[in-house]
Amino acid sequence: MDIIVLRPGATAKELRYIVKKLENKGFKANISKGTERTVIGVIGDTSKITEDESNAFASMAGVEEIHRIIQPFKLASRDFKSGDTTIRIGKHTIGGKRIHVTAGPCAVENLPTLLNIAMEVKKAGATFIRGGAFKPRTSPYSFQGLGEEGLKFLAEAREKTGMPVVTELMDPRDIDVILKYADVIQIGTRNMQNFRLLSEVGSHDKPIVLKRGLSATIKDLLMAAEYIMAQGNNKVILCERGIRTFETATRNTLDLNAIPVLKKLSHLPVVVDPSHGAGKWDLVAPMAKAAIAAGADGLMIEVHPKPEEALSDGEQSLKPDKFKTLMKELKAVAKAVGRTL
Amino acid sequence: MDIIVLRPGATAKELRYIVKKLENKGFKANISKGTERTVIGVIGDTSKITEDESNAFASMAGVEEIHRIIQPFKLASRDFKSGDTTIRIGKHTIGGKRIHVTAGPCAVENLPTLLNIAMEVKKAGATFIRGGAFKPRTSPYSFQGLGEEGLKFLAEAREKTGMPVVTELMDPRDIDVILKYADVIQIGTRNMQNFRLLSEVGSHDKPIVLKRGLSATIKDLLMAAEYIMAQGNNKVILCERGIRTFETATRNTLDLNAIPVLKKLSHLPVVVDPSHGAGKWDLVAPMAKAAIAAGADGLMIEVHPKPEEALSDGEQSLKPDKFKTLMKELKAVAKAVGRTL
Amino acid sequence: MDIIVLRPGATAKELRYIVKKLENKGFKANISKGTERTVIGVIGDTSKITEDESNAFASMAGVEEIHRIIQPFKLASRDFKSGDTTIRIGKHTIGGKRIHVTAGPCAVENLPTLLNIAMEVKKAGATFIRGGAFKPRTSPYSFQGLGEEGLKFLAEAREKTGMPVVTELMDPRDIDVILKYADVIQIGTRNMQNFRLLSEVGSHDKPIVLKRGLSATIKDLLMAAEYIMAQGNNKVILCERGIRTFETATRNTLDLNAIPVLKKLSHLPVVVDPSHGAGKWDLVAPMAKAAIAAGADGLMIEVHPKPEEALSDGEQSLKPDKFKTLMKELKAVAKAVGRTL
Amino acid sequence: MDIIVLRPGATAKELRYIVKKLENKGFKANISKGTERTVIGVIGDTSKITEDESNAFASMAGVEEIHRIIQPFKLASRDFKSGDTTIRIGKHTIGGKRIHVTAGPCAVENLPTLLNIAMEVKKAGATFIRGGAFKPRTSPYSFQGLGEEGLKFLAEAREKTGMPVVTELMDPRDIDVILKYADVIQIGTRNMQNFRLLSEVGSHDKPIVLKRGLSATIKDLLMAAEYIMAQGNNKVILCERGIRTFETATRNTLDLNAIPVLKKLSHLPVVVDPSHGAGKWDLVAPMAKAAIAAGADGLMIEVHPKPEEALSDGEQSLKPDKFKTLMKELKAVAKAVGRTL
Q1: CATH assignment of the domain containing C154
Q2: Contact D313/D275 with Cβ under 8 angstroms?
Q3: CB A57 within 8 Å of CB A4
Q4: Which chains does B contact via 3+ CB–CB distances below 8 A?
């Protein structure tokens, strides 16, 4: 069901043209003449009307605006699947009662540092290891990551600790090498609407962490998930990591409202990255606790033993001892909302 | 200490003019010639440089930009007072270990409904009653509040329940009648930069809840608090209630990041209004829990027995039984972060 | 006509309840059962449904969302009055073929400076003089204006030059003194939703320049105009002056899109303030020209002979010679779009 | 020159550590002890300090914040090259006195329609033809473009009209086929921070139109240009096409302030896309005129003979006759600001 609102002075001829176009597409038109406007209710499976077709109707003579009633995403919606999706990765389940914490450095820098971090975060209770081998950096002069060598280090960290590996894919040309080493593929904020990359990862059977874009609405995020799912891959984990607003006191505005809204609109698991979201290490702990209280299924947290020497994002990384303290606090909050961690 | 950056081609004459102006105001100029830019460090008590004076320097020939090092707020800052401010209201203390919940209808509608709500929320654990008698409505055709009659009803609810009254002041001409009935004066979102109103409430000895404006940065909020404090009233409670962003799935974007940031920059107590922040009743519970996990000192929650008949903001009000359930959950989260409620 | 969309599982009982409520209010319900959702078309004069009543419907059991078809403003809308409103002030007409430029200092500082500016801008072609006597400043420590003395200076400038005076009202308690001296009352950005102030100026017969709030949507601006007009004062001039976005390279983001959108939705004249909008003097000229090309009916421009000594907003003020050059350029652009200046 | 501000209680040891780190990297530290803060001026070529290194300093004990004085982009900056860059494409020059208009359909749909549009827009004065063969669509169910077939049609339109072809590259795997047919490669909004794609087009000698991302600051846009230029390709044309704000009356907020700001910070040509920026055809004309008045070097405008049957973005396309009228108006505005078209 879509609603087409006509302009005040729309003519009978304009109305007939629109109704005929609707009927040609197999819809029925329910016309209501109000006191100020005439409104056409479109009856039929309007979820099949693409955005393009809807825009075409919006440009017809006599049309003031279109109200779409059905969300443009289908496979990702609660309408399509009412129960929560859970995703099995190794021996862990994302989206169930247990909250999972993914931890690690922003970028993989060298093997000893990575192994050291991996062992520290595992001891503290993290269940997944993260680290970037291909890094999307806003400056061409910044460290761009170690590439496949970084992936090998991650695989070694997995072997040593048993923790599955989460790492980012930036370029469809790297899909094979990423598939070889990763347990979960991360699609980063700046690639959330890189539709070719979304289609690429949608055609493989590997779980995806899909990060919300800096200016992506919640619906945009779900449409990006739809791109992946439309290719057959239903293992999508949504990740809130901060949006761009006028506020400059924080690097981004971590939007925790997205958690309950996503849970209402979609069946997919939702995790939160408070490190990128807030951008400063001393905001990570309060926002991580808040995320769990708001219903997140997991967290992604940056940990580095020497943030002042990190090759990227040092400003937002926790030291291992601070991470350990945080994990204890998170356990208490998780328990308070009926979850475990 | 302020920093004045000169344009690449700034002349010696322009530099001398700026230095002389600084010296005339009693400052010393520390000139550093870098490889690309010349930079002037302003030595002295630059907190006394007003925004106007700073802008005047910015408009001088040869100046590229000014970096201000010291925050423009003083009395509200942690630099000025390092310990947390606590505010005593009746037998309660805001800003201490105990988290306080203020509850009530958006607008006071009639006495029986108000008393009913007051007793229900008290039973559930709320410690302050709220309700609007003067309502800032975006439409001139919407219900504007009962005025003094509404204040009398609030006073009666206080008498019946012992709960102090929080209510909004919209117009400096209403200050006397508000002072007569209110225990805490609320300055609403749309008046956060109504500087005359801020000065007015600053010259009385009544606690103030100051709500963040829809497009106010955290620094703007602290400058508004400074306006009140500059008149002598230090009893300011800061309230996060949602900012305006591009996201349309929620009425506003409740910015919980503001809690730890405000706690870092200021000594004032911080409370959160998840009802206005998210704008839909089913988001109130998760965001209320998240606010406490993030370190809020209190919450303001709208409660109405029949939201579908409320004269304002029905969409975001909780029914008393949902509020009761929420209060139990909030107690658990408060305990998990070392607080009581 | 409003549209009420029901949730997928809404019951027949819920539907009946909603229909009965609509009928009680004198509306007819047109029910369409689509393949995925049931939708109720509300027939009757739905412009009388207040935001409150609409929210109350939104909170009823079974309701997913409400789509409002009719704009919430009436008197300010093109639906209500299709021809352009023109406002006569002294010998000038705002909203006609001629574009008017209001110029002057941000704040009135002293009589000689004001007279000097007034004569300079008149010579260059400005037709109105502006200057603040009551200044809304974000810092309590900044210059707050000369008060009534400033108004007297403005009146003297009017006497010397014949230019009508535009000045800001910040507080309803100042209405009498402002009415005594001003030809046009400015309602500033931070007071755009100070509803008491809007009602106050609505009950007098003086033209109003209403500045768009930093986070006000175009509809919010028109609702603020509606507040004034609902009291009987139809002489409202809308002013775009920049909105708050994530961009930090400019003080605000001057939103010129607002010009054609306001012209489409409303019959009221539209002016632009590029000085506050962009916040830097070297952006004023290009944005002023762009505003006229986009269809603005007037401009408000800050001019100061010594911006580096101005008591407020020096950074965004033009010197008289730059203003003179700009006026020549503006004349050429006005002519190119079929206007005069 | 960068500025490191220390926290109020920073210790002498912390200061020494920071100074030593700076000296290790070859910089000199100029220490100023103000009355409230100690500030370190970093002397040397700080443009070589990457964002990573800067963040690492920000995370050192005792540091409150870092102020960067030098812009993070170099090759794209006016500091690096003070004169305007002009780009020769066929017989046309972008960035000179003449303003160029690129026109065409959003997506290439079929050959006859494309040729028809090409001939119409050429007749009206357009000098470049645009059309998408690979389309970034927010829905996986929308028309995705004709691929290489669409490129062939564009090449045929070029042959018939002599107009160079502008078309979008979405995926680095398509670079060869795009290079084969395109005269100018467009990098779309959603790929502005697809760093691999930027590097790819940077390593070829083809002019690039780089569209500003929906949430990209002006500095982000210049950093994206830097990515391309760092690989050796200096032929970058910057394109403003609307940013995401809270305003919902327009699809995006076309930010014309970006034109003078980009012209101040960079030597690269700047064009504007009012079709995507405003999102509705009746806003295209006023915003196109405003863009030229503000100093744009070119425009990109969508034209379609039957917008109501267009396969994408019909709502924002002009019909050929409206485009023709607009071109005449644009010529007048161009002349008024000393340009030709």
Answers
A1: 3.20.20.70
A2: yes
A3: yes
A4: A, C, D
C286 in the same domain as C186 = yes
d(CA C169, CA D150): 60
Which 177-236 residues of chain D touch chain C by CB within 8 A? 215, 217-219
Residue A100: which of A241, A284, A298 has the closest Cα?
A298
- The answer to whether residue C82 is domain-embedded is no
Over residues A250-268, the pLDDT tens digits come to 989 999 999 999 999 999 9
Q: How many domains does chain B have?
A: 2
Residue type, A236: V
Tokens of D4: 């490191």
Report pLDDT digits (tens) over B166-205. 999 999 999 999 999 999 999 999 999 999 999 999 999 9
Whether the CB-CB separation of C269 and C85 falls below 8 Å is answered with yes
Closest CB to C223 among B55, B138, B215: B138
User: Is A194 found in the same domain as A108?
Assistant: yes
| Pairing relationship of beta strands D28-33 and D38-43 according to DSSP bridges | antiparallel
Q: What is the pLDDT of residues B298-321, one digit of tens each?
A: 999 999 998 877 777 667 889 999
Interface test with B, best of A222, A256, A273, A276 (most B CBs within 10 A): A256
Same domain, D64 and D183: no
- One domain for residues A246 and A296: yes
C79 in any annotated domain: no
Do residue C194 and residue C297 come from a single domain? Answer: yes
Strand partners, D28: D43
Token pair listed for C309: 């000594």
Residue D341 lies in a domain: no
Neighbours of C31 (CB within 10 A): 15
Residue (of B160, B163, B159, B210) closest to B185 by Cα position:
B210
C40 in Cβ contact with A3 (< 8 Å): no
Ramachandran assignment for B62, one of left (phi > 0), alpha (psi -120 to 50 degrees), beta (any other): left
* C-alpha separations of B139 from C228, D202, D285 in Å: 11, 53, 32
Residue B81: inside a domain: no
ipTM score: 0.93
- Structure token digits, residue C112: 């000689």
Q: What tens digit of pLDDT does each residue of D14-40 get?
A: 999 999 999 998 998 888 887 778 889
Ramachandran bin of C26, using left for φ above 0, alpha for ψ from -120 to 50, beta for the remaining angles: left
Best of B77, B135, B196 to disrupt the C interface (most C CBs within 10 Å) is B196
3-state secondary structure of D287: helix
Instruction: Give me the domain span that covers residue C31.
Output: 2-68
